[in-house]
Design goal:
Number of strands: 4
Number of helices: 10
Radius of gyration: 18 Å
Protein name: Glutathione S-transferase N-terminal domain-containing protein
Shape: globular
Order of helices and strands: EHEHEEHHHHHHHH
Number of domains: 2
CATH topology of the largest domain: Glutathione S-transferase Yfyf (Class Pi), Chain A, domain 2
Strand content: 5-15%
Family: Belongs to the GST superfamily.
InterPro entries: Glutathione-S-Trfase_C-like, Glutathione-S-Trfase_C_sf, Glutathione_S-Trfase, Glutathione_S-Trfase_N, GST_C, Thioredoxin-like_sf
Structural class: alpha+beta
Distance between the termini: 32 Å
Organism: Limnohabitans lacus
Pfam families: GST_C, GST_N
Length: 232
Amino acid sequence: MIDLYYWTTPNGHKITMFLEESGLDYNIKPINISKGEQFEPAFLKIAPNNRIPAIVDQSPSGGGEPIGIFESGAILLYLADKTQQFVPQDLRGRNECLQWLFWQMGGLGPMAGQNHHFVQYAPESLPYAIDRYVKETSRLYGVLNKHLSDGREYICGDYSIADMAAYPWVVPHERQRQDMGQFPALALWFERIKNRPATVRAYELAKSINTAPTVDQNAKSILFGQDAKTVV
């Protein structure tokens, strides 16, 4: 059984997508980040960065004590290795998959995240910041579109954790001010993943957990007002 500490963000969706695809038994433990539940001491023991998602594997391979893991990319890789699914088993294929997983973790996620912040949540419009992150999001979309333009269905040929990592960050493309018509190969990839039954189930689950996905002023102060004192 996997305990999944989860909220309905792109990084959270990555893990529900994997779990729905793999068939692993899992139990959702909602962490409402708009209410500050990510700062609860029990959660911080698993996720010291006070961010979702995190997991606890109650039955790790080889037995022993439960294993807690934070960071969505690390969780995807752990689950892929545990199940021997959605990561290539050969040296070259595995390394290609991990490169694209790290590309998402270091590029697409952070840049699109800043895009979301300055376009939607900043208290005042900052044209330089908006232009910077909208353009960088566009560049990253272009990188993935070019990679997919050789006719492959998924990032590494077969469906993998690289796709699960990237897809949720492309879902809000309209809010990121991206025109999918400019990225035809990416658009086909996006629709292919969107229509997978496991993806549909994962996103339906999100609707049942977060029934009022709004960010009010109090939530903004929790989400965007953190500094070193938050950790202490």
